[in-house]
């Protein structure tokens, strides 16, 4: 069967069989792109994801964190961040693109506490976060030059 290309004054009109073939190619390409994007954003099988997990601080600046009043970090699916800084609660937003992460519009409560050294250092470290990594179920927050600022384990 021979098809000829019908010409309209403004644009060529493809015969119906060729049009369906192009539609199938487009749908296949779109599905491939969507699946690829979805796979890139999923955590490792069985491991915790960045959002939907309450993370407990393990180290800050390479040093272990004391067991009392351990800071936490929780990022919601909509990008809101909240947690406990050691004395006060904090909240704000995030910008996430691939493995890049930054915290935005941060605020905290202002309760009076005796020892706020960990809290002040912790909140200051969040301002310097540029990326994250999840390996072996542990979250690492990383600065712009690749130094690990803090590490977390999934909370109970």
Which value, in Å, is the CA radius of gyration?
Answer: 24 Å
Strand content: 35-45%
The SSE string, one letter per element, is: EEHEEEEEEHEEE
Which architecture of the largest domain does the CATH hierarchy give at level 2? Beta Barrel
3D shape: elongated
Low-confidence stretches: 35-45
Number of domains: 2
Q: Would you state the CATH class of the largest domain? A: Mainly Beta
How much helicity do the residues have? 10-25%
> What is the averaged pLDDT score?
83
Largest sheet: 9 strands, antiparallel
Terminal CA distance: 68 Å
Provide the CATH topology of the largest domain: Lipocalin
Structure description:
There is one protein chain. The chain has 156 residues and is α+β, with helices and mostly antiparallel strands. It folds into 2 domains: 6-41; 54-154, Lipocalin, CATH 2.40.128.270. It has 2 helices and 11 strands; from the N terminus they run ββαββββββαβββ. It has helices at 16-41, 117-127; strands at residues 6-7, 12-13, 54-60, 63-64, 72-75, 81-84, 89-97, 100-108, 131-135, 138-142, 148-154. Strands 3, 4, 5, 6, 7, 8, 9, 10 and 11 form a 9-stranded antiparallel sheet that branches. Strands 1-2 form a two-stranded antiparallel sheet. The longest helix has 26 residues, at 16-41. The termini are far apart. The relative contact order is 0.14. Mean pLDDT is 83; it is low at 35-45.
């Amino acid at each position: 069967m021979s098809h000829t290309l019908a010409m309209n004054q403004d644009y060529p009109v493809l015969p119906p069989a060729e049009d369906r073939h192009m539609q199938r190619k487009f749908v296949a390409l779109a599905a491939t792109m969507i699946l690829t994007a979805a796979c890139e954003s999923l955590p490792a099988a069985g491991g915790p994801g960045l959002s939907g997990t309450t993370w407990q601080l393990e180290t800050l600046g390479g040093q272990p964190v004391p067991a009392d009043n351990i800071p936490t970090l929780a990022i919601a699916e909509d990008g809101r961040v909240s947690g406990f800084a050691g004395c006060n609660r904090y909240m704000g937003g995030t910008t996430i693109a691939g493995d890049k992460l930054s915290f935005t519009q941060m605020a905290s409560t202002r309760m009076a506490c005796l020892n706020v050294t960990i809290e002040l250092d912790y909140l200051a470290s969040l301002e310097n976060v540029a990326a994250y990594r999840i390996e072996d179920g542990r979250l690492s927050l990383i600065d712009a030059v690749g130094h690990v600022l803090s590490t977390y384990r999934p909370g109970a």
